[in-house]
Structure formats: C-alpha cells, structure tokens
Amino acid sequence: MKIYTKTGDKGETALFGGTRVPKHHIRIDSYGTVDELNSWLGLVRDQKIDTSTKQELTTIQEDLFTLGAILATDPEKAVLKNGKERLNIPRIKESHIQKLEVAIDTMEKDLPQMTHFILPGGHTTVSYCHIARTVCRRAERMATLLQENEPFDEQVLSYLNRLSDYLFVLARKLSKDLKAEEVKWISEKTD
Known about the structure:
The protein is mainly α and 191 residues long. The chain is 55% helix and 5% strand.
C-alpha cells in the first residue's frame, strides 16, 4: 500500500465510506485532534513511568483509534446496503468510561486533596501529561461542535470528557511519583 495517493492535493480528503470533504471540515478537525491526542499519549507512555500506567495508556490509545474511526465515518454511509455497519470495530461502551473512572478513583486515593488550582509543570513528564489533557479538551470541544451538526454515538463525548479528567489526575499522580512539586495557583498576590 502506497502512503501517498495524491487525492488530497486540492485540499479535500475522504471520510470512511468515501465521502469527500474539505480538509478544514469539523469532522476532520475532530478526528485529527483525537489523533494528535493519541500522539501526545504515546509521548507520555514513552516516559519513565510505572508499567501499569503504560498499559493503561496503551489501552486508551487503542480506544482513541476506535473514537477516531467513529468520527471519520460519514453518518449517511455508516450502514451498508445489506444493513450491516460499515465499521467492523469494537464500540466505545459505558464499560470503557467506567474503566477510566475506576482508574481516576484509584489514583486519587493516594493523592492529597486539592485545595487550589495547580499550575501545569514541575517535571517534563507531568507537563506532557498536561498538554495531552488540554488537547483532549480541544478534541472534546471539536466533537461537541460536530455532534450539533452531524450526530454520532454520544459515548464518544462521555469518553473524551472522562479522559481529560483521567489525564488531570494522572498528571497529579506523576507529580507525586516523580517527587515534583505541585505549584498552587494563588489568585491573590501581595505586592
């Protein structure tokens, strides 16, 4: 399979199912941002972190491929003429979201209670995780705009929302694991 097709040279691309849209279409922005998020998670996973977190992140990256495929499919072509779904992949289910919630709850048990907003940073690995969190939030914003115009499975939105929470708590866990200081944002400064 050739990596280049030259079919996008005029600023259009094909969705799963063959529909051609401009490369700036909100659907392309949505799954492109999920792809960007997946790349950032790969960078976080490549850091010196514990094996169970690496495994969790690999599972999340696999889920994001599923999300991307859902977002890349033209809803009008999601079902084939024979009635079967075009996407022959696992779906994002409530159980995927619950896994994220369990992971969040497990990590939070060992963290000090939050009393302030926290400034991103403290260690490169933590910063990468915060960047992934903000990209996840952007993916969620893009997907909600797409959802308003071309509805898709709402579990996708729930998953992205919970994933950003997971990434925030993971950043806090990594700060603790790496003995990095959590810098609290103090809203009132004294001169």
